Amino acid sequence: MPTVVPVRGSDDPKVVRTGGIDRRIAILTLLPLAVLVVLVFTCGVDIPFYDAWDFLPIIDKSLHHTLTFAELADADNGHRILMPRLIRLTLIHFNGWNIFHELLVNIVVEVGLFLVLAWQIRRTFSSFPRGRWIYALPVLSMIVFSLTQWLSWLDGGGIAIFLNVFAVVAGIVLLAQPNVRAWQVGVAAVLGLCAAYSFANGLLFWWIGLGLLAVGPDRKRMRGWAAAWGILSLAVWVGYLQGYRGAASAPGSHTNAAVRLAKYIAYVPTYLGGLPAAIQKPPLAPLGLVAGLCGLVIFVGLGWRLLRNNRVGYRAIAPYLALGSYSIASALLTAVARSSEFGYTQALASRYTTITMLLWISNLVFLRLSMEAATDSTPGLAKPTAQNLRRCYNVVVTVLLLGTLANVYSFYHFHRRLGECRDRLIAGETDYTKLTFMFPYPERFQERLDLLKKDHLSIYRDTQSAK
Predict the structure, then answer these.
(1) What is the pLDDT of residues 214-262, one digit of tens each?
(2) What are the phi and psi torsion angles at 16 (to 5°)?
(3) What is the rounded distance in angstroms from the CA atom of residue 397 to the CA atom of residue 143?
(4) Cα angle at 345 between 285 and 435, to 5 degrees?
(5) How far apart are CA 14 and CA 130, in angstroms?
(6) Residue 111: its H or E element
(7) Rounded to the nearest 5°, which phi and psi values hold at 18?
(8) Cβ atoms of 73 and 80 closer than 8 Å
(9) Do 295 and 359 form a contact (C-beta atoms < 8 A)?
(10) Dihedral, CA atoms, 61, 66, 72, 76, nearest 10 degrees?
């Protein structure tokens, strides 16, 4: 017989947790993760993919103990990915570059992200008698383990964005708590360094963290910490940009100012709409733009409304304002480097959805908080508003679910294409133009392949023991 436990802080006998409900919630929460694990280990291919081939010179130097710290921390396509490189090199030293071990680390990092967000959501809704926070877990799981992130899930290099987002979220959660203590600021600073040296967008966290310390009801008490954080932020930025080399621009990026501006304006909302519409096909790209505009309207409109609501207020929504702001700031920053060169459809790239999911998580929390606040107000006036908010919430969840389901095909398509390249390579293919899905620069492929063979890595890691 299932136990019945009243929800903490609730006098409503209908608001209960039963063993049956808990089991159903647990199953629905674990289902996205289970589906993801099956797809990753079914569709993953044990061969370097794309940028991983350019990682081979660093791997080779590391294995032969000639790698310098400057080379390890050097910018790659505009990002100093020091922390991901350290993790990957550690694994490679032990496993001869088994890609599946990297994919497992990706999943573990995202499980950590899920736990941090679940903890924060529980705190947010703990003061609402009707705020059944546990029912948010399946939706949170669907977003965090979304299949729209398929390319990052299937590429060991995806650890760069996964680690970046985990560090940013954990740092924001620490700094957004009431009565922030010295250890929280210190840990958040360490996480900020991890975020910045995993993916360049992590530099934005430092200014968002400054905003959390300098704004809000505790700003007088936090004045000293805010000043210290500001000085440290400047130091991190200066150190990061020292000797920095950005990504090279393509010839097509040098267009007139009006065209560049138009591409930039279209790129930003499309980037933000990637999670519900991450299908990078030109005919479908406007869906991402529309979804991004809707996401912005929800975030700004409900965020402003909740700030002015005495039942909710700044302290409850501060973490989500910061999370959504990180997504928006990332869109603005990425558009500077990418919009002119690739056009706005590139904003729907799968890897960006890990960053933009923070905006959609914040939007769903804002919708739930608005529903709770509307229900707690005058019943006769609040009912239509609460119903409309619930409809909006259900629409957003449905669209996000459809977006993740639509990308199941992407896993199998990736497996087929990369698997064909791997089989060709094992069979002795020498026409490297036939392997461009795996590495798009055939003129450099032979050099990279020689390193793979010399160091007995990936598909050649068993040849050393055979000798």
Answers:
(1) 886 666 777 788 888 899 999 999 988 887 766 555 545 556 778 888 8
(2) -135, 165
(3) 9
(4) 115
(5) 10
(6) helix 99-125
(7) -115, 160
(8) yes
(9) yes
(10) -40
